[in-house]
Amino acid sequence: MAYRFTLGGENYRFNDLKSVMAKASSHRSGDVLAGLAASTNAERIAAQYVLSELPLTVFLNEAIVPYEIDEVTRLILNTHDAKAFEQISHFTVGDLRDWFLQDATEGQNIAVIKNALTPEMVAAVSKLMRNQDLIAVTSKIEVVTKFRNTLGLKGHVSVRLQPNHPTDDLKGILASTIDGLLYGCGDAVIGINPATDSPDVTINLLNMLEDLRLKYEIPTQSCVLCHVTSALQIMEKAPVDLVFQSITGSQKANSSFGINLNMLKEAHEATLALGRGTVGNQCMYFETGQGSALSANSHHGVDQQTMEARAYAVARQFDPLLVNSVVGFIGPEYLFNGKQITRAGLEDHFCAKVMGLPMGMDVCYTNHADADQDDMDNLLTLLGVAGCNFFMGVPGTDDIMLNYQSTSFHDALYLRKVLGKKPAPEFEAWLLKMGIMDEKGSKLNIGENHKLLANL
């Protein structure tokens, strides 16, 4: 179905729903690369007018990726909560935006309808919002998850300790892990991206982290971010807390990652059966990123932000402990500069949170992007205000294995201090017991005889 709008005496025509969605998106290099972006700001505004007046029911009747060929579309439509949708079925996209922003609409009101919202609906709403709108809505929302500690509580922000090493050297990774713990990082997860997908290496890394956790009674979880099939292969031989997988918003793109929904279901059930959690047993960890489907030529003519939101439907199906976008990691071909990375990070966080996901963010960029650490400071702070569940803690911000720039252990201290936020409660108690932090969240001086450094 074609859509039309007249603006300033000029007529604009959009061939179908996905064209309206793409043209209404904020300018970004990935959509330009795909030939989907609005050619002028006027065309973008015309598309936003069209989008604002579309009934939400349109998104249930016009699939942007055909139902017959795509299991993600089938998942979205087959799991849609029709009963909860009755509350908002009369809304247009503009009405939903206004409802989100009303003072009377609180986080629990949004939670009631989360399964009535398709990814395309929330992506559409985000295209009508300024940055402050995205922040205002998500600051209302609390998404709490549990494994060995409690993540996502209001007033708290957590950190994934990311001690990657280019050769998976155990001593190097252990040194970075200890360093991060001494800065109060690691409550979200101690998560290692292995340099190879070797099962033996993965087992060795997991055993090392398990020994450390048990020795010092650290209330957190570990994860080696190997492929889901590798995790299934080693599950009976290694202490697997969480199963990780990168996901995206179309069946074809997920196939390029070597996965499908049945495979994720198998991994989820197998990990649940291990029962390794203590305060809860949410055991999946997913990463996403705008541009991943386009980079696999599997975007079906859909703009990258909407395709990203569709990945959240996949994540939502498996009740994850952690989800994060690696917002600037894929490169300037998809998000060219700091402004585009900032906008994408706020959009991704908004879409995931209103869909009920425990969203974190890898606030990052590659060295050939038109961005710098000041841009990352800005986005980190904005997302902290927005209530993002967790961030990355990378030694010195520089991941020497993945060769990109992220946020550091020091950045976590900064964010908690300026926003008055704390680590996960169980982890905070451990930091106090270990003499790493004081009651105000300030880092204590660590001498060479500190118990975390002794007898390693």
TrEMBL record:
One of its GO terms (molecular function) is cobalamin binding. Pfam families: EutB (PF06751). Its cofactor is adenosylcob(III)alamin. Substrate binds at R160, L161, Q162, N193, E287, D362. GO terms for biological process: amino acid metabolic process; ethanolamine catabolic process. Binds between the large and small subunits. The keyword RNA-binding does not apply. Adenosylcob(III)alamin binds at P194, Q245, S295, M401. It catalyses: ethanolamine = acetaldehyde + NH4(+). Keywords: Bacterial microcompartment, Cobalamin, Cobalt, Lyase. Pathway: Amine and polyamine degradation; ethanolamine degradation. Its main location: other. GO terms for cellular component: cytosol; ethanolamine ammonia-lyase complex; ethanolamine degradation polyhedral organelle. Catalyzes the deamination of various vicinal amino-alcohols to oxo compounds. Allows this organism to utilize ethanolamine as the sole source of nitrogen and carbon in the presence of vitamin B12. HAMAP family: EutB. Belongs to the EutB family. This is Ethanolamine ammonia-lyase large subunit. The lineage of its organism: Bacteria, Pseudomonadati, Bacteroidota, Flavobacteriia, Flavobacteriales.
